[in-house]
Amino acid sequence: MTGFDLVVRSRRTITPEGERAAAVAVRDGKITALYDHAAPLDAAEDIDLRDLALLPGLVDTHVHVNEPGRTHWEGFDSATRAAAAGGVTTILDMPLNSLPPTVNVAAFETKLRAAEGQCHVDVGFWGGAVPGNVKDLAPLRERGVFGFKCFMSPSGVAEFPPLGPAELRLALEEVAGFGGVVVVHAEDPALLTEPGGPTYQEFLDSRPGESERSAVAEVVRLAEETGARVHILHVSSASCLEVLEAARARGVAVTAETCPHYLTLTAERVPEGATSFKCCPPIRGAANRDLLWDGLARGVLSCVVSDHSPATADLKVPDFAAAWGGIASLQLGLPAVWTEAARRGHSLGDVVRWMSTNPATFANISGKGGIKPGNDADLVAFDPAADNPVDASLLHHKNPVTPYHGCTLKGTVLTTWLRGRPVDGVPHGRFLLGEQ
């Protein structure tokens, strides 16, 4: 074959059918075909990674970019640079923490203007479901958001309040009417308490696993009654798995995700005062972590996404009751998950399914999530054996705060291609719009 723009060869190409030696041929930003590794092909550029792995670009459907309004926390330029450095070629931005939050079309247009010309990877957007904006949901969907984020407990910012049970039902009924999806921060506010003091254990005790289980059960009940499709965000408590598995067995349209920090970090090893580890829901114990891995292996949890929620260092005061809750890990998700996955006997194909294929499928992002003909040529050269020492000051995130600082992870991203072009510091990401 002749006339390809790019051919990338690897003896460890991760495809939807499994790992194989292959040459991936690219034309006009799309994967045209997969050939044998040594096939003679005519291309403007032909790269042989040999035994390095070739992955599809990761799809992170849970990223808080915070621009406009809190751009000093994070912004589209810094967030998408970090994404590309971590092998992530598609992100979906969450609707809160920006000012204004994305709860109507006017706010969405404001966000699009803020992001224009800054994106180093492709970016899509969630809308928000808050009290009083039910009539804004369909117009937001028509404008191109991928679905709607809501909270059942306080979000941490006053401009994005939670939905009570009646309001949640109304939102689910509305979104079910046009075939959309609602993604839910599920913690039962009745089971949350104020931390009794500044320690991590007191913070952990204030957000028990039962608060997640209770909220997930309520979401499942309402989804079953309304026919809405729902997705449970950032599951940290393994007590949710039984509820989710039973719901799926009954045919309820519910999916769920977890995050790298819940799969790699444990409560027992959180240093006192190290509020870079604080997030909501919290990092729990090692036994709970093992059960999350089991739920992931069995498909009860289908996606692993970052919930990248950064803040300035001054908000991470060394008091778990007072510090801002959120973990910055967008650039580190792949090596963090691969480090622990490999230790537990999982393959690179498993990691790709959890971090690329399944997120693209759940959010209905076309052309992403796999190395196959017709998809965008979003590719990642990855050395799974390389040591990756983490220095927060060298990350692309806007603020050098991460619980992984000082850790040595396994696996390094060497090159990221977006639609067949290396991500090279010149923004060429596109806005992705959901089905209208």
Automatic annotation (TrEMBL):
Per its UniProt record, what NCBIfam families does this chain match? Answer: allantoinase
Name of this chain's protein: allantoinase
Q: Which organism is it from?
A: Nonomuraea purpurea
Instruction: Show where the Amidohydrolase-related domain sits.
Output: 54-423
Tell me the organism's taxonomic lineage: Bacteria, Bacillati, Actinomycetota, Actinomycetes, Streptosporangiales
What are the recorded GO MF terms, alphabetically?
Answer: allantoinase activity
Q: Which pathway does the UniProt entry assign to this protein?
A: Nitrogen metabolism; (S)-allantoin degradation; allantoate from (S)-allantoin: step 1/1
Which Gene3D superfamilies does the entry mention?
A: Metal-dependent hydrolases (3.20.20.140)
| Listed EC numbers | 3.5.2.5
Keyword set includes Transcription: no
Q: Does the keyword Secreted apply?
A: no
Q: Which UniProt keywords apply?
A: Hydrolase, Metal-binding, Zinc
Q: Which cofactor does it need?
A: Zn(2+)
